[in-house]
């Protein structure tokens, strides 16, 4: 089997070329799959540690439950599979993608079976190392009365794809979307923070994905004596902000240079976001997050 090509599929580690799924999968037609984006980091001691494995796999299990998907793996089993996958692909710094997708069902009734694939690959920071130019999207995040916002649901990413495409077409790097009430919500695949007068502000939970990186950054900020307020804001407020950044597993902490034609006055290297970006990079490599033994 090729290196970096081994995936886990329904109980087996196989070459990705030999993996098959049905074209009648309900996920393919209607988008009701659930997934996670997880990172593993080479620690300072040289081993590899999956960052917040428990939080990610618990979110995956909650997502499956909210979508009425039959899914019986335990968090421990999922964590063990992820470590084995890294080992088999000889990966230390890696991005891990579990996806729960449905069996055959052409109606909208809940499918009776589900499948699990897990793959891993080396992936650079999603938004790169430079600060990004952000566009205030013409799209809104889904209404929480239409979708459970705490679920990482495949179908909801069609909204993210539309917003990203719009931003790229207009020459921006990323989109920032508002919620259905016109309050700033999140990026296409990231949570959002801004800095004003030495304090941090971020949209509250409810109309956004409860990001695991967001929670980590709030903790790190408070440990460093930085006040963080979870409160709604309108896009106009951002025109008074000093700096801003995105957080997410794939993007990590990504500085924002500008939103539309407003350029943040504080240089990224002098911002609270930059300080937390450095802290985050140390934090993910420092702790030993492996709480389960490899089977
Ligand atoms: N919002 C959305 C819409 C996302 O897709 C992601 C990425 N999972 C995030 C926020 C950040 O979440 P996390 O920090 O858990 O990766």
From TrEMBL:
<dbReference type="InterPro" id="IPR043131">
    <property type="entry name" value="BCAT-like_N"/>
</dbReference>
<keyword id="KW-0100">Branched-chain amino acid biosynthesis</keyword>
<comment type="function">
    <text>Acts on leucine, isoleucine and valine.</text>
</comment>
<dbReference type="InterPro" id="IPR036038">
    <property type="entry name" value="Aminotransferase-like"/>
</dbReference>
<dbReference type="InterPro" id="IPR001544">
    <property type="entry name" value="Aminotrans_IV"/>
</dbReference>
<comment type="pathway">
    <text>Amino-acid biosynthesis; L-valine biosynthesis; L-valine from pyruvate: step 4/4.</text>
</comment>
<comment type="pathway">
    <text>Amino-acid biosynthesis; L-isoleucine biosynthesis; L-isoleucine from 2-oxobutanoate: step 4/4.</text>
</comment>
<keyword id="KW-0808">Transferase</keyword>
<dbReference type="GO" id="GO:0009099">
    <property type="term" value="P:L-valine biosynthetic process"/>
</dbReference>
<keyword id="KW-0663">Pyridoxal phosphate</keyword>
<dbReference type="GO" id="GO:0052654">
    <property type="term" value="F:L-leucine-2-oxoglutarate transaminase activity"/>
</dbReference>
<dbReference type="GO" id="GO:0052655">
    <property type="term" value="F:L-valine-2-oxoglutarate transaminase activity"/>
</dbReference>
<dbReference type="GO" id="GO:0052656">
    <property type="term" value="F:L-isoleucine-2-oxoglutarate transaminase activity"/>
</dbReference>
<dbReference type="InterPro" id="IPR005785">
    <property type="entry name" value="B_amino_transI"/>
</dbReference>
<protein>
    <recommendedName>
        <fullName>Branched-chain-amino-acid aminotransferase</fullName>
        <ecNumber>2.6.1.42</ecNumber>
    </recommendedName>
</protein>
<dbReference type="GO" id="GO:0009097">
    <property type="term" value="P:isoleucine biosynthetic process"/>
</dbReference>
<dbReference type="GO" id="GO:0009098">
    <property type="term" value="P:L-leucine biosynthetic process"/>
</dbReference>
<dbReference type="InterPro" id="IPR050571">
    <property type="entry name" value="Class-IV_PLP-Dep_Aminotrnsfr"/>
</dbReference>
<dbReference type="InterPro" id="IPR018300">
    <property type="entry name" value="Aminotrans_IV_CS"/>
</dbReference>
<keyword id="KW-0028">Amino-acid biosynthesis</keyword>
<comment type="similarity">
    <text>Belongs to the class-IV pyridoxal-phosphate-dependent aminotransferase family.</text>
</comment>
<dbReference type="Pfam" id="PF01063">
    <property type="entry name" value="Aminotran_4"/>
</dbReference>
<keyword id="KW-0032">Aminotransferase</keyword>
<dbReference type="InterPro" id="IPR043132">
    <property type="entry name" value="BCAT-like_C"/>
</dbReference>
């Amino acid at each position: 089997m090729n290196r970096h090509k081994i995936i886990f599929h329904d109980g087996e580690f196989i070459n990705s070329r030999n993996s098959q799924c049905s074209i009648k999968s309900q996920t393919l037609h209607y988008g009701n799959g659930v997934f996670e984006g997880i990172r593993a980091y080479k620690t300072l001691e040289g081993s590899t540690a999956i960052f917040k494995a428990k939080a990610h796999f618990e979110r995956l299990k909650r997502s499956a439950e909210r979508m009425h998907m039959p899914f019986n793996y335990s968090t421990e089993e999922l964590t063990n599979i992820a470590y084995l996958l890294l080992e088999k692909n000889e990966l230390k710094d890696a991005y891990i993608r579990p996806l729960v997708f449905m069996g055959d069902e052409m109606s909208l009734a809940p499918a009776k079976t589900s499948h699990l694939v897990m793959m891993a690959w080396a992936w650079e920071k999603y938004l790169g190392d430079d600060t990004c130019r952000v566009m205030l999207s013409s799209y809104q995040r889904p209404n929480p009365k239409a979708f459970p916002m705490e679920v990482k649901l495949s179908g909801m990413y069609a909204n993210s794809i539309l917003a990203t495409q719009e931003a790229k077409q207009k020459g921006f790097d990323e989109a920032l979307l508002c919620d259905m009430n016109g309050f700033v919500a999140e990026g296409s695949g990231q949570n959002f923070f801004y800095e004003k007068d030495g304090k941090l502000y971020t949209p509250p939970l409810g109309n956004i994905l409860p990001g695991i990186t967001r929670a980590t950054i709030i903790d790190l900020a408070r440990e460093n004596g930085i006040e963080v307020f979870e409160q709604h804001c309108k896009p106009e407020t951002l025109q008074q902000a000093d700096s801003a950044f995105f957080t997410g597993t794939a993007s990590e902490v990504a500085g924002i240079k500008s939103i539309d034609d407003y350029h943040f006055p504080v240089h990224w290297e002098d911002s609270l976001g930059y300080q937390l970006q450095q802290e985050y990079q140390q934090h993910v490599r420092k702790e030993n997050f492996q709480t389960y033994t490899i089977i």
